[in-house]
Every structure is written in structure tokens, then in C-alpha cells.
Amino acid sequence: MTGVPDTGDLAIHTTGLGKSFGKRRAVNNLDLAVPRGSVFGFLGPNGSGKTTTIRMLLGLSTPSSGTMSLLSQPMPAAAGQVLPKVGALVEGPAFHLFLSGRANLTRLDSADSTADRSTRTRRVDAALEKVGLGKAAKLPVHAYSLGMKQRLGIANALLRERELLVLDEPTNGLDPQGTREVRHLISALATEGTTVFVSSHLLSEIEQMCSHVAVMSVGNLVAQGTLEQLRAQGRRGVKVATPDTSVAMAVLARLGLDPHVEPVPGGEDGMVGAVLGPEATEPEHLVEGLVAAGVRVRGFTVQPASLEERFVALTGEGFDLVQ
Ligand SMILES: Nc1ncnc2c1ncn2[C@@H]1O[C@H](COP(=O)(O)OP(=O)(O)OP(=O)(O)O)[C@@H](O)[C@H]1O
Fold it and tell me: Which positions fall inside the ABC transporter domain (predicted)?
């Protein structure tokens, strides 16, 4: 793909990154380029290698092959300098349910030997404010909703000034309200200039909050770039409303398309749809061909290229489109 930025501008850069578990290749030859300042969606179905990649990036697991850098410094060699600038939410920190949100963050910060004790109270309160838990700071965590717990996890990642935030499926298991809260929080953090790398199996989510996306399929990177770049690579579709579906199918097939009939409840008309490949006959010629063959064309629409179509074409599988 085009548009891969200068490596000096990259918050995350990997080349040929791979990880095997025995014979299973969980991540294969991964070249990721995450621009600084982006909200970068790491999209893929369950089991496609997202968590494995994130664990390697954060030094929680050793790669089987390849190189990686975070904030332009080699990992894991520079982990000591880099990781304090990187906040992460991976598999959520374990909270004590009977302690308050504030007490939990204080404990987690105390467990970090590199954290500055003298600024602890201020940093904990600032992080709670930032994620909108200022008012709930004194409540025990068992009284928090799932969305609040997830935001507390993000607050934990924000106990210091961070240049990069790495969030593994931060909305997993949340209801629509919790999902919205986390999404808004991520967008707010991004406007402050923090680079956010966020994994998800939900296309709709990535579409709503990310500027860039990388798509994983069975351990392989199958696309990477801005959302616009990916959308532009998608293929248009056509839909023909007609009572003569079999003839319309035959005509479109003769014109090189792979048409299908879509069910239409009630009414006489059927709907024949087809995806237009790069070499496909232009829509006006399709209409010409249909009419010449006697097909009663009662409706004809050209649908713009969509991200959804692109992802399905890239991965060969459907993504969950809505929660
Ligand atoms: N510790 C491990 N030992 C053996 N296999 C593993 C291990 N961790 C991950 N895998 C395998 O590697 C593949 C990728 O898993 P990974 O968790 O990275 O995917 P994912 O995209 O994050 O999916 P999910 O959202 O379900 O976590 C899967 O087939 C998984 O079973």
C-alpha cells in the first residue's frame, strides 16, 4: 500500500515480525507502520494474531523473528527508556473490587518502582478526571459498570504522560453505552496528541474512531493505510430491481460479472446484485445490455465502494459490523 510514512514519524514500526507457538504461526512476517498522532485501528477476527502482536510490542512476549521499534527506539533493547512513555491496556489490570477506584490506582502506581511517589496523588486524581471517573473515585470498584471498569483500566495506563497508548480490545464485552464512553475517551485522548493503537474485531468501531487501520487475517497483515485509502480500494456494486431476474442474471454474467439474486419480501420485482471489479463494464453499458435483452429494469443503483466490502474481500470472512 502507498502512504507509508517516513520511519522517523512512526510510533510503532515492525519489520518481518513473527511469532510461532510450536508449529502454529500466530503472527507472520508483519510490517506495521503506525504514524505518530494517528488513532490506529488493528482490526481482525478473533484469533488473527492481534493480542500476540501487542504482547510482543510491549515486551511481554519474545518474537520468533523480525524487528520492532516503539517511538523510534528499538525494542526490546530500549524497553527501559521507551515503556514509561507507553500506556497499555492488555487483558485489563486486576482490580480489588472492594477498594475504591482511587485506592486501586494508588496501589498499582505504588507497585511501579519507577513511578514518582511525590506526585502520586496528583497523577492518580488527574487520570481519574481524564477518564470521567472523578466523581466515582471513592466508590468501590464492585459498584462500577463494566464501562467504568474499562475506563479505570485506561486511567491506569494514563498515570504518566504517555506518547503512545496501546489498547487491546478496550470495548470487548461492553454494552452500547460503555462502548460509546470508551470510544469518546479514545477520541479525546487523540486530540491531545497521544498516538493510540487500538485493536478490535468490530469494523464499525474502527470506522468511528480511527484515522488509520491495519487488517489482520490468520496471522497475516492483509491491508494497511488510512481509512480513505482502504475505502478507495473497495469495489462498487450495482443493484437491478426487475421482475425478470433470471434473464438479468444471464445478461450480467455474460458481461463478466458474478451476479446474485437478493431476496425482496413481497412485490413482483426481484433484486439482482453484483460487485464491479476494476475491469468491469461501466454501469451505463450494463443498463444498455439489460434493456437490449428485454429485461424490465425498474430500478438501477450503483453503490459506492465500502470499507465493509473491502474487508470481506481481503479476509474472505465477514466482520461483526455492529455490536
Ligand atoms: N500462548 C499461546 N500458546 C499457543 N497458541 C497461542 C498462544 N497465544 C495465542 N495463540 C494462538 O495464536 C493465534 C492468534 O491468537 P491471538 O490471541 O493473538 O489472536 P487475536 O487476534 O488477539 O484474537 P482474540 O481477539 O480472540 O484474542 C490463535 O490461533 C491462538 O490460538
Answer: 12-243
Q: Which CATH class is domain 7-232?
A: alpha beta
H helices present in the chain, as ranges = 50-57, 79-82, 101-110, 120-130, 146-157, 176-191, 203-209, 227-233, 245-254, 283-292, 307-315
Q: Which three cell numbers stand for residue 172?
A: 470487548
* Distance (Å) from CA 53 to ligand 1 centroid: 9
Which atom of ligand 1 approaches the CA of 168 most closely? Answer: 22
Check pLDDT > 70 for residue 4. no
Tell me: pLDDT of 6 over 60.
Answer: no
Percent of the chain at pLDDT above 90?
A: 59
Q: Domain map of the chain by residue range?
A: 7-232, 235-304
Query: What would the pLDDT profile of 115-156 be if each residue is shown by its tens digit?
Result: 889 999 999 999 999 888 999 999 999 999 888 898 899 999
In ligand 1, which atom is closest to the CA atom of 53? Answer: 18
pLDDT at 317 over 70: no
Please give the distance of CA 307 from its chain centroid, rounded to a whole number.
Answer: 12
Task: Judge contact between 74 and 67, C-beta under 8 A.
Answer: yes
Q: Is 289 helix (H, G, I), strand (E, B) or coil?
A: helix
Q: Is residue 91 lining ligand 1, measured as CB closer than 6 Å?
A: no
Angle ∠(115,116,117) on CA atoms, nearest 5: 110
Which pLDDT tens digit goes with each residue over 237-258?
A: 899 999 999 999 999 999 989 8
Q: Are 37 and 195 in contact (CB under 8 A)?
A: yes
Whole-number Å distance, alpha carbon 51 to ligand 1 midpoint, is 7
Averaged over 170-186, what is the pLDDT? 84
Radius of gyration for the alpha carbons in the chain, expressed in angstroms and rounded:
24
Shortest-distance Cα residue to atom 1 of ligand 1: 21
CA of 22 relative to ligand 1 center, distance in Å: 12
What is this model's ipTM?
0.93
Residues 6 or more apart whose Cβ sits within 8 Å of residue 228: none
The more confidently predicted of residues 18 and 305 is 18
Residue position matching grid coordinates 497483515: 221
